[in-house]
Amino acid sequence: MSVLSGKVQTVLGLVDPDQLGRTMTHEHLVMSFECSYTAPPPGDEAVAENPFQMQHMHWLRQHPYSCRENLFLSQELSALRDELLAYRKAGGGTIVENTTTGIDRDLPALRQLAKDTGVHIIAGAGYYIDCTHTEATKKMSVEKLTDNIVSEVLHGTDGTDIRCGVIGEIGTGWPITESEKKVLRATAHAQSQLGCPVIIHPGRDPAAPAEIIRILQEAGGDISKTVMSHLDRTIFDEGELLEFANMGSYLEYDLFGTEMLNYPFNLKVDMPSDSQRVRTLAFLVKEGYEDKVLMAHDIHTKNRLTKFGGHGYSHILKNIVPKMLTRGITQHQVDKILIDNPKRWLTFK
Ligand SMILES: CC(=O)NCCS(=O)(=O)O
After folding, report:
1. Which residues does a divalent metal cation 2 bind (predicted)?
2. Smallest Cα–Cα separation from 210: which of 178, 242, 232?
3. Whose CA is nearest to atom 1 of ligand 1?
């Protein structure tokens, strides 16, 4: 038993799990996504230079990663404060902030946002995908990586005493690199020491989630306390989805609000619509996975903020939940997905 057992760790300290309320388990508030910049389609360079105008909003939704300015959520603290106040008003209680080392985590800013708005914010420990690993990170042993992650949870990080309450999002690509495999093993070792929640960003291939679970399992991770993110753009076949669900992790649909015809990170992928996401959730609930499903928006670009005409952090609560209720998911099941499942996942063993 540690001092963390039975508690949830927010950027303002430990809280009782019952205090969390409705929880988005995969968001970003303060981050930079510069690592994922992709050049605009030929001919669109001028729009990409100056996109924050009404007439360019559709372009920005279709090409969010092709405008550098769009990749710096960290520049929008005042808008983020307004977003969180609106989220509370819409019935939200908690946000898991998945920004890890490599995409510019800013813990003091998260603490200030939590103080200003009353929303519980839980910060993420660990490392994002390979291309953001420094040379020093790549050279670290699994033991050293484990110690770093454990310390981020127990003592705080980035020169602060602000402690992380989950490990992740831990980034992986496809195929998974050697450096990412080391981080996954360190994640499992840290989790087995701490009894803490873990959340994973898989590569964009249907085989990636299962491969990650195998690596974590072999290293002693607790799959029942692990979330597999971004399933909406990763597994499309219902049979494969059920096979993966059977491995025992939480199943996260976290790109609600994302609308994109050509997904630049894998052009073979057809990004689903919100209606298709709801249909998949209804399928998983029907198949008996209502205790495993989680939801979020994974906001990581500016155009998705309401300030810029985006859907904001309250989209699920305001628009998606009513739709779920018309598609065979009961209010009791919605409460499981938004309250009970996050609470169980986030509570330290
Ligand atoms: C911040 C982050 O990693 N978001 C995931 C974007 S993706 O397109 O689903 O990989």
Report:
1. 169, 201, 230
2. 242
3. 300
What pLDDT, in 10s, does the model give residues 156-211?
999 999 999 999 999 999 999 999 999 999 999 999 999 999 999 999 999 999 99
Residue 37 Cα to ligand 1 middle (Å):
12
Atom of ligand 1 at shortest distance to CA of 263?
Answer: 8
ipTM of the predicted assembly exceeds 0.85: yes
254: closest CA among 272, 237, 266? 272
Is the pTM higher than 0.95? The answer reads yes
Distance CA 234, CA 269 (A): 8
Residue-wise pLDDT for 81-131, tens only, equals: 999 999 999 999 999 999 999 999 999 999 999 999 999 999 999 999 999
Question: 143: annotated binding-site residue?
Answer: no
How high is the pLDDT of residue 94? 99
Nearest atom in ligand 1 to the alpha carbon of residue 300 is 1
- Domain boundaries of the chain, sorted by first residue: 10-33+72-346, 34-71
Ligand 1, CB within 6 Å, residue ranges? 28, 33, 201, 230, 233, 255, 265, 298, 300
Protein residue with its CA nearest to atom 7 in ligand 1: 230
The token pair at 94 is 């908690």
| SS3 call for 168 | strand
| Span from the CA of 5 to the centroid of ligand 1 (angstroms) | 31
* CA distances, 254 to each of 60, 104, 230, 312 (Å): 20, 20, 6, 13
Instruction: Please give the CATH architecture assigned to the domain spanning 10-33+72-346.
Output: Alpha-Beta Barrel (3.20)
106 C-alpha to ligand 1 centroid (Å): 18
